[in-house]
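Hi there. Long-time user, first ticket. I'm pasting a complex I've been working with (about 438 residues overall). I'd like to know whether the download I got is complete or cut off, because the file seemed smaller than I expected. Thanks.
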Amino acid sequence: MRIAELSRISGVPVPTIKYYLRENLLPPGELTSPNQASYGDSHLHRLRLIRALVDLAHVPVAGVKEVLEGLDSPTMPLHDKIGRAHRAITPQPQLTSTPAAREAATTQVEELLTSRGWSVEPDAPALNTLIETIAALNTLGQGHLAGFLDSYAGAVETFTDLEVAAVTSTPTTPTPDQIAEGVILGTILGETLIASLRLLAHESISAKRWSHPRGSLDT
Amino acid sequence: MRIAELSRISGVPVPTIKYYLRENLLPPGELTSPNQASYGDSHLHRLRLIRALVDLAHVPVAGVKEVLEGLDSPTMPLHDKIGRAHRAITPQPQLTSTPAAREAATTQVEELLTSRGWSVEPDAPALNTLIETIAALNTLGQGHLAGFLDSYAGAVETFTDLEVAAVTSTPTTPTPDQIAEGVILGTILGETLIASLRLLAHESISAKRWSHPRGSLDT
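Hi, the file is complete. Here it is re-exported in full:
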């Protein structure tokens, strides 16, 4: 198909498609004449993948590029491809906590990782975010929320068990490329899925408990 | 304290503090002379709250303003304050799915809400995001991930039960203002907390399962 049709089917404007082509997010089409190219289903699929990462997971274009380079590499281990997906959705926070707050939060996180038996690299992108978030909650007088950390981690394990099951339960036997794309999409869009489900559950509870004035706690 | 000391203790640069003052995110200090103001602990607390929302939850300044206006309102019901927090962390996605994909995803979500007994407003900010995410997964050939939707929702309920328990279990009897701030912080930073815990759990699993080349599924 021509670029105009690719745009029509995907809903992505032609200038945006051209931008993705220039940035190498989208591989070039097959030249059918010196200034005309033809695009196939793989382009349409790739375009939808890019839009999902940008529109739904709010990954910046540079992050999308990293993720796609990982997906396209025939030799990179899946673990490293996943690492790229993690970095794309974990912007590194500025370290605004005080040294004392950071130290206390670091101890809490180390204890959690040990008790859960999670083995993560010290430079895992999410580690900094977790430590800073706990430090912020403690400093803002909401340390009791961080006290539920172990229960949170337990509930998170329910998800990750589910997610591993979901990824390895594709109906047909997937190729390594399909596995990689499924794991990456599950990682990135799974976060969007969980976040929106959580907010809907909150809204439902909140409407039942807290729609009275003055934050009454009556049920 | 003077603005320089507020900056030193909070780690927030003076120009940024002045910007927050101009934008009314931070209430003005008490004037001690025509061009000198004094700031107290409530300013320091508010400044830390702003930085947590901006740095850790990546809420844009306009969203922070919405959230704080809600928190500062003595008459707004808590449910509406929570609504502001939801909108702040749920940027509305562009609707890039095809009409058919969107319709199918909408049906899936409606069935889910009914079976879970979640009552949400049709304009709930997260509803659109959830529908578009499921549509994207279906279109990208990862529909089996969305097939786990009900299990995901079940795991999410584990969280929300925990979160309600955490919010209502403050060690001392909280004022309505403290309850509101706790619920809002729990809602917003809770998302950051869960997302980073999930990525750490993934990393731990991924290192065990997928650190071999070519995406082997050996355990």
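A couple of notes from our side: The CA atoms of residues 5 and 144 of chain B lie 55 Å apart. Chain B has a mean pLDDT of 86.
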